[in-house]
Design a protein that fits this description.
The chain is mostly helical. The chain has one domain. It is built from 2 helices and no strands. The radius of gyration is 61 Å and the shape is rod-shaped.
Length: 154
């Protein structure tokens, strides 16, 4: 090997070492800058969270508690309305049943009274008919035949 070729190799190795050191320095600077950027981003996120998310979360929790209370009230009211609706429905059904019973009783009472009245009218009619038939048969006796003919247009 030639001493000049060793000098060239040594120079090239020196350049490569210097470039490696330079690359290491650049990587360290990039790492430090990335860490600073990460720290700033994290701090900004924390500040935004403290300024906006925490108060908003507290408001949402308060609203959710109110909504839960309202839902409990609505459930209680719904149960009361359901119970009262059942009571009203039962009362209406009971009243309708009583109305039907009363109508049946009135119908039966009126029917029996009308039947009694019709029976009395029929009896009176039959009595009047039998009285009239009794007179006619006495009018038809032998001495009264001419009167009947006179009355009939004869």
């Amino acid at each position: 090997m030639n001493p000049t070729s060793l000098d060239t190799t040594n120079v090239l190795l020196g350049i490569m070492a210097a470039v490696s050191v330079l690359q290491a320095l650049v990587l360290i600077v990039v790492g430090v800058m990335a860490y600073r950027l990460y720290s700033r981003a994290t701090q900004t996120i924390r500040e935004l969270e403290m300024r906006h998310v925490v108060p908003l979360s507290a408001r949402v929790d308060t609203l959710m508690a109110k909504v839960d209370g309202i839902l409990v009230d609505v459930k209680a009211i719904t149960e009361r309305v359901g119970t009262r609706t059942e009571r009203v429905d039962s009362a209406i059904r009971h009243t309708m049943h009583r109305v039907d019973q009363t109508a049946d009783r009135v119908r039966a009472t009126v029917s029996s009274q009308v039947n009694g009245l019709v029976g009395a009218v029929n009896s009176a009619w039959n009595l009047v008919g039998s009285l009239l038939n009794g007179r006619r048969s006495s009018d038809e006796a032998p001495g009264h035949a001419s009167r009947r003919e006179d009355h009939n247009g004869g």
